[in-house]
Amino acid sequence: MTADTANPRSKRSTKQIDFNGVLVSALKIPGVRIDRESFLRNEFQTRPSEFVNDVLSRGPVEAGISRDELRALAKRIVDTTTLQSSGMSFLTGLPGGLTMAATIPADIAQFYAMDLRMAQQIAYLYGEPDLFRNGLPDDEQVRNQLTVFCGVMFGVSGAVSLARAASAKIAKQLMSTLPKKALTKALYFRLIKSIAKVLGIKMTKQVFARGVSKFVPLLGGAVSGGMTYAMMRPMGNRLINALDEAHFAYTEESLEADLTNLESFAAGDQQHNA
Fold it and tell me: How far apart are CA 230 and CA 169, in angstroms?
């Protein structure tokens, strides 16, 4: 008798989690979606109203907020989110907050919900447009953008290059001048699919590790809290670094290197699936 036969639940426990499904569910949790206007008004509430309106219209970078100030604001968001997420108060205190419980454990659901909140706030600081202006939380454009941001935070190969190439203003100007290189729609969607697949694998491993910890007395809670504290700060910093470089230190050489990296990433994933 094999181990799987002896324990019919083992196959189910190792089934890979669908990241897209978790993402859509997470965005339906009250409090996870960030209202861009309210967030930016709060961040710059001490500035003159004319300046705040300019921030809302063009984004903090184009409105003239310095690189150092934006980085300091983003770092504060990461620190605050890390501390808030160390407990279990966020999801359990919200109506419908456990809607992901059937997919992943509540503590990990909370972790990803807080990641998504943090990603939106950092992105809005660096000038990303309102993700939800088109309405529905499962809108494809919203999912794609947040998948890239999550990929950056989790260190998925290719995600940083895609975030920089898609976000940098100079990239849009240079894209047409680079011979035989372009971030085509076909390549973009292939990359999104690849990043989502890797995120699903990472999430599956995370859930499995959390499940194993439950069998060790007193370790489960320590693992959950420690995982959050140890992972969330570097994850937020990865996204800050990517968007900071995209807006303040991106060059034609950077774009060429990122596009080459993306082509290699897509080709490698295609060969793996063949």
Answer: 33
Report d(CA 58, CA 130) in Å as an integer.
Answer: 11
Helices (H), the chain: 3-6, 9-13, 19-27, 36-43, 49-58, 60-63, 67-85, 89-92, 106-125, 140-153, 159-167, 169-174, 185-213, 219-248, 252-273
For residue 204, which amino acid is it? Answer: T
Q: Looking at the chain, how many residues does it have?
A: 274
What tens digit of pLDDT does each residue of 36-80 get? 999 999 999 999 999 999 999 999 999 999 999 999 999 999 999
Nearest to 107 by CA among 238, 209, 198: 209
Provide CB contacts within 8 A for 252, sequence distance 6+. Answer: 170, 174, 177, 178
Measure CA of the first residue to CA of the last residue in the chain; give whole Å.
Answer: 33
C-alpha separations of 144 from 19, 148, 149, 166 in Å: 11, 6, 9, 11
Phi, psi of 100 (to 5 degrees): -95, 0
* Single-letter code of the amino acid located at 143: R
- What are the tens digits of pLDDT across the range 188-223? 888 999 999 999 998 888 766 655 434 344 334 434
Q: Centre a 10 Å sphere on the Cβ of residue 33 and count the other Cβ atoms it contains.
A: 17
Spatial CA neighbour of 84 closest among 210, 229, 246: 229
| C-alpha to C-alpha distance for 138 and 25, rounded to whole angstroms | 9
Q: How far apart are CA 263 and CA 174, in angstroms?
A: 17
